[in-house]
Each structure stands twice: as structure tokens, then as C-alpha cells.
Fold:
Amino acid sequence: MGDLNTFVKKIVRELLKTDYPAMDKMHSMIARVTSVQQQGEAGHYHCYTVRVLEDNTELPNLISEQVYQKGDVVVIQFVSGIYPYIVGRWYG
Structure:
């Protein structure tokens, strides 16, 4: 069982590095909102797809209560190094 566990962890890490290279970084990143969808009751939550400007990686399904428009530039931070979170708009 230990070999299978190690194998699965290795495969997941490799997939993350190749498909989502931005997730390997711990610093804040600048991204552009490319898609917006309302979710939840009465649209309380919004689901965003963003494209990281640094390496052109697309990150889908970021949930936020904040309202952003398609084309807005936002700051992304990875919570615990795993889950991308929109910190706020980028005004720089």
C-alpha cells in the first residue's frame, strides 16, 4: 500500500507541475479575469477563470463573494500553497 501511495503522490505532483505550473509558486501573482459565472442563491458567489500574466497559465473555478468583471486584473495568492484565492484588484 505504501508503494501505491508514493506512486499516486508522485503522479499528482507531476501533473500539477505540467498542467498548472503556477500552483508550484508561493508568491502573489497578477492575473486577468477571463470568465465570470454567478453561483449560489441569488448569485451570492461568483466563479472566475483567470489567466496568470506571468506564464499564461489558466486557473479555473476560483470562487469569490467579490464581484469582478471580465478583463479585470486581480492579485492571486495560493492558500496553503495549494488553493488559488483572489486577494483583490490590481491597480498597479
